[in-house]
Amino acid sequence: xxxxxxxxxxxxxxxxxxxxxxxxxxxxxxxxxxxxxxxxxxxxxxxxxxxxxxxxxxxxxxxxxxxxxxxxxxxxxxxxxxxxxxxxxxxxxxxxxxxxxxxxxxxxxxxxxxxxxxxxxxxxxxxxxxxxxxxxxxxxxxxxxxxxxxxxxxxxxxxxxxxxxxxxxxxxxxxxxxxxxxxxxxxxxxxxxxxxxxxxxxxxxxxxxxxxxxxxxxxxxxxxxxxxxxxxxxxxxxxxxxxxxxxxxxxxxxxxxxxxxxxxxxx
Length: 267
Hints:
Layout: H1 6-15, H2 37-53, E1 58-63, E2 79-89, E3 95-106, E4 117-122, H3 124-129, E5 135-141, H4 143-152, H5 156-160, H6 180-193, H7 198-208, E6 212-214, H8 218-227, E7 240-242, H9 245-254, E8 258-265
Helix pairs in contact: 1-8, 4-6, 6-7
Protein name: DUF2145 domain-containing protein
Organism: Asticcacaulis aquaticus
Keywords: Signal
C-alpha cells in the first residue's frame, strides 16, 4: 500500500482509532493488555462487586483500549459488552455463579478478516485487562429489561441479530454493517420491542434512536478505507453517525429501559 501524504495521514489518525470497536481487544486472538494480571483481576472483581451490589443480573459495561486523549470529543469508550450473572462451568467441570461477558469482536486479519466479526463469551478478567483508562461506563437496565435480555442473550435468536460485516463507524440506522455497540443496541431494541425482525428493529431505531455524530471530513471518509479496511462509510448518507456508550445510555434512560448509567472508577 502506498503511503498517504502527511496531511492526509494526520487527518486519518484523528478518525481511525476513535470508534466503537476500534481496539485490539475487539479481536480476541491478540488483545492489547494494558493492566497487569493482578490489577486486571482486582478491577474485574471491583466491577463484579459493584454490579452484584445493585442486584444486576444483566448490565452493559464499556471500556476503552485507547487513551482518552486519542478519542474524539464526546466519545469516551471503544468497546461494550453484556455482563450476565449466570451459571459458569469451570475448566475442571465445576459449575459456579458469576458474570459471563458477551462480546462482538472483529477478526484478527489472519484467521478471520478484520472486516468480519464474531460473537464470543469470555470473562471479566479478559475485559478488564484491555482497558487503557481507570474507569468503565456502566448501564443498568430496568428489572424488566434485564429479564428480557437475560432470556435472549446466548440464544439462537440472539445469534441471528449478529451482522458479520464489520465497520468501525457502522450506521445504527442501516442494516449493512455492525460494530460492537451497534450489536448491543440491536439486542436492546429487540428486547425493548419484543421482536427479532431486523427490518422492524432498524425502522424503530430510525424513529427513536439518536446516534452519536462523528466529525469526519470528506477526505478522511473518502480515503479512510485505504488506511484501514474497517473504516467503511458507504452505509452513511450525510454526516457520519454511530452508536456509542453516550448515545446508547441516553436512549435507554430516555425510553425508560435503564435504571441508571454511571462511571465506575478503578479503586
